[in-house]
């Protein structure tokens, strides 16, 4: 099977509404998947690399640290099953890269969960010990985010349940099933940051999630569920702040400067589990949809391979042409079905040959549509052009690093130019150059 490489944004024809129906997840019960093997990458966060602390042949428990974080901006990685470390090797990563992972084989006779987080730990220490990172896709360590600079006065905790990318239902399902725990995570964040209120933003097309969260919110002081317009990218931090508290988020991404602290609902859920149940982050919900025979949301142990989850959905429907990790707008194509899902995984979407909108780039016609849709008011066509000319200086002047990689510019471009992917690459190159300059000082 040939799986095309792709990065940022996604082209599909105007059958997207039909696809929404076809790819819809209809389920009421939690589906748990427990594979025989997991491949757990050591680094599943933004920040400094972890150090492997187990060896081949070691017996590990579910929840035990296998890759330890030492720097502040990093997060421990734990075993997601009880078993034996059978190999340490390279496994597929996003793009053309590989990553180092511990392969763990399940011990069928022992699958108990033991609390491995010290009962005396403070809230902040428990969150750090659990290895929690932003589960909305950012994977920034949550314990760092919960410790903003002294001058910042956080008034509002915002729980992001927008889940605005098409086809994804992971947070929707989580909110229906775990509303109390999600709000408990919000309360813990509120206590740590001494904030006043909790706001939960959920797009209006998730009525079951809104109903469940409203019911749970009745028991929480100063907590409101706010139904949001169904509009991509409503779940972007800046867009959410604009809608919920009419605040403009700084372009450098430090949205907490507005006095609002935003986390995804799945992160809030993980915070509650770490504090109240002393559980490490070992599992999460993922939507497996698109051209698979049985689209569903699955609760899976971190390190589960894509191919095992596709099998759990009764296999492909038709001949797969493109498989995306994440949503169709911001996700990235994966090229190897051995790819293991990690903390940052919320969806796998399969497009078969019939539904994969293949396109060819043509020259920019200066129509300005990309500028009109950009939620952070950038000039995508000019950044793209500068990047193609290897002109990172101009990319920097045009604020390429402020791009939130929403993919809107790519989606609307009539010339089908791969704007979002190039702008993301430009932003990464600028950051690398600046870091190298800092290191050289
Ligand atoms: S340039 Fe703007 S529209 Fe394009 S991906 Fe970045 S933020 Fe989105
Ligand atoms: S939308 Fe495409 S064609 Fe139009 S200005 Fe932007 S890059 Fe050029």
UniProtKB/TrEMBL annotation:
[4Fe-4S] cluster 2 binds at residues 374, 403, 406, 409. Residues 355-384 form the 4Fe-4S ferredoxin-type domain. It comes from the Bacteria. SUPFAM superfamilies: alpha-helical ferredoxin, Nqo1 FMN-binding domain-like. One of its GO terms (cellular component) is plasma membrane. Its cofactor is [4Fe-4S] cluster. Keywords: 4Fe-4S, Cell membrane, Electron transport, Iron, Iron-sulfur, Membrane, Metal-binding, Repeat, Translocase, Transport. It is found in: Cell membrane. It is an enzyme of class 7 (translocase). Binds 2 [4Fe-4S] clusters per subunit. GO terms for molecular function: 4 iron, 4 sulfur cluster binding; electron transfer activity; metal ion binding. PANTHER family: ION-TRANSLOCATING OXIDOREDUCTASE COMPLEX SUBUNIT C (PTHR43034). Part of a membrane-bound complex that couples electron transfer with translocation of ions across the membrane. This is Ion-translocating oxidoreductase complex subunit C. It comes from Enterococcus canintestini.
């Amino acid at each position: 099977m040939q799986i095309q490489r792709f990065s940022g944004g996604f082209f599909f024809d105007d059958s997207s509404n039909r696809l929404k129906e076809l790819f819809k997840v209809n389920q009421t019960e939690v589906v748990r998947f427990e594979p025989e093997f997991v491949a757990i990458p050591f680094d599943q966060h933004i920040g400094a690399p972890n150090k492997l602390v187990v060896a081949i042949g070691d017996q590990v428990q579910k929840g035990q640290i296998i890759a330890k974080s030492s720097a502040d901006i990093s997060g421990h990685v734990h075993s997601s099953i009880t078993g034996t470390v059978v190999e340490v090797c390279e496994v597929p990563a996003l793009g053309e890269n590989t990553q180092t992972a511990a392969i763990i084989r399940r011990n069928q006779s022992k699958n108990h969960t033991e609390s491995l987080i010290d009962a005396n730990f403070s809230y902040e220490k428990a969150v750090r010990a659990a290895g929690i990172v932003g589960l909305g896709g950012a994977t920034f360590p949550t314990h760092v985010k919960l410790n903003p600079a002294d001058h910042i006065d956080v008034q509002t905790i915002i729980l992001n349940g927008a889940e605005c990318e098409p086809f994804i239902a992971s947070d929707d399902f989580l909110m229906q099933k775990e509303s109390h725990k999600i709000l408990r995570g919000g309360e813990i964040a509120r206590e740590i940051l001494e904030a006043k209120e909790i706001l939960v933003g959920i797009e209006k097309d998730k009525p079951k999630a809104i109903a469940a969260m409203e019911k749970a919110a009745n028991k929480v002081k100063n907590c409101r569920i706010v139904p949001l317009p169904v509009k991509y990218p409503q779940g972007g931090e800046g867009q959410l702040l604009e809608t919920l508290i009419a605040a403009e988020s700084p372009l450098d991404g430090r949205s907490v400067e507005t006095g609002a602290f935003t986390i995804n609902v799945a992160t809030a859920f993980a915070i509650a589990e770490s504090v109240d149940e002393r559980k490490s982050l070992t599992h999460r919900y993922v939507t497996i949809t698109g051209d698979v025979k049985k689209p569903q949301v699955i609760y899976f142990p971190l390190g589960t391979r894509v191919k095992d989850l596709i099998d759990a959905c009764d296999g492909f429907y038709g001949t797969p042409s493109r498989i995306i990790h994440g949503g169709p707008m911001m996700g990235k194509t994966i090229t190897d079905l051995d790819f293991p899902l990690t903390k940052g995984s919320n969806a796998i979407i399969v497009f078969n040959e019939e539904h994969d909108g293949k396109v060819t780039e043509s020259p920019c016609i200066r129509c300005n549509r990309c500028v009109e849709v950009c939620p952070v008011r950038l000039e995508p066509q000019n950044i793209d052009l500068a990047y193609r000319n290897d002109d990172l200086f101009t990319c920097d002047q045009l604020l390429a690093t402020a791009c939130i990689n929403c993919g809107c510019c790519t989606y609307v471009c009539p010339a089908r130019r791969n704007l979002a992917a190039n702008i993301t690459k430009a932003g990464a190159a600028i950051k690398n150059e600046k870091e190298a300059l800092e290191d050289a000082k």
